[in-house]
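Students often ask what a holo structure prediction actually looks like on paper. The answer is less mysterious than it sounds. You provide the chain, you provide the ligand, and the output is a string of discrete structure tokens encoding the 3D arrangement of the protein together with shikimate-3-phosphate.
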Amino acid sequence: MKIFLIGYMGSGKSSTGRKLARKLGYRFIDMDLEFERVYSVKLGDYINTHGETAFRARERDLLEILAHDPGEAIIATGGGTPCFFDNMGLINKSGLSVYLEMHPRSLAQRLEASLNERPLLKGLKDEDLLGKIEKHLEERRPFYNKANIKIKGESLDMEELVRKIKDNIA
Ligand code: S3P
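The corresponding structure tokens follow.
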């Protein structure tokens, strides 16, 4: 079984994924780090040099490799991964998807301190952050909403998440 965590930047996909992997005894894969390992490049450098379109194509290639890899894993996707090509279709065909849903204000609060580490938010003024997240979420929600499981990220209860996952794979 593969479990894909999806959601906006800052929604806690990687930290939740790590905890979940420990609880379920699965391998954990962070797609952004895997991208850097497989393509031997910093993700930010790749996007700056080649642009977002090229990044999305390489990201799709990586998703295909991970989706077809046999074995169990918790995979934290990048915030935009589900929203390009038929990535959400591939994710749902290959395993269970979990959307960590968060209010734009909560995301803005979490992202404020790390804006310059996020290639797509770099250079944004603090006062423009909330509007950018809201606009992004308008575009991305239809994809995120295709997830098998949705859970609020603000006060995430790991036991509840594990229960929901077990109910879905029973
Ligand atoms: C992106 C999110 C990032 C990373 C890339 C693009 C996005 O991942 O994949 O910078 O489009 O939302 P995180 O959600 O892990 O920060």
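Residues 109 and 130 are 9 Å apart (CA to CA).
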